[in-house]
Specification:
Number of helices: 1
Number of strands: 7
Largest sheet: 4 strands, antiparallel
Order of helices and strands: HEEEEEEE
Radius of gyration: 27 Å
Distance between the termini: 87 Å
Length: about 150
């Protein structure tokens, strides 16, 4: 006669550990994708707000420049240095001779791109720069608005 009672306890214990490990792994994978999705959404929202803030400040600088009473103008804008995803780049583009343009903000990981419309009667120089504190500069001699890192 053989005694299998000790084996069944050990086998049951190993099976319980294996099932627990599988469940913990599944929870970690599901939680990781949820966090990544939330990071992407928060980054999109942060880039949208930063783009709208810059577009609004460019519109203010445009109004001041067109008022005709200023020779030079520098408007400081404090944009976030980083987003939930890290650093980001800003591209300001306005086709020559048009009042409509756009501001494109882009983060690399996760890859999120936001485009915000831009409207300025004063020409805006096309440029690409990093997020953070920027200055909108106007010189009456050149009659152009330029966004620079400051």
């Amino acid at each position: 006669m053989t005694d299998d009672r000790g084996v069944s306890v050990t086998v049951g214990y190993v099976l319980n550990l294996a099932i627990a490990a599988i469940l913990v792994s599944a929870l970690l994978m599901a939680g990781g994708s949820l966090i990544e999705s939330q990071t992407e959404q928060v980054t999109h929202d942060e880039l949208t707000v930063a783009g709208q803030q810059l577009a609004g400040d460019l519109a203010s600088a445009d109004r001041l420049a067109r008022a005709g009473e200023t020779e030079t103008l520098t408007l400081q804008t404090d944009l976030p240095q980083r987003t939930a995803a890290g650093s980001y780049s800003i591209t300001v583009a306005q086709p020559d001779g048009e009042s409509a343009g756009h501001i494109e903000l882009e983060s690399t990981h996760p890859e999120v791109t936001v485009t915000v419309p831009l409207r300025s009667e004063t020409p805006v120089e096309n440029t690409t720069l990093s997020g953070g504190q920027v200055a909108i500069v106007y010189d009456d001699g050149e009659d152009v608005l330029e966004v620079q890192s400051s």
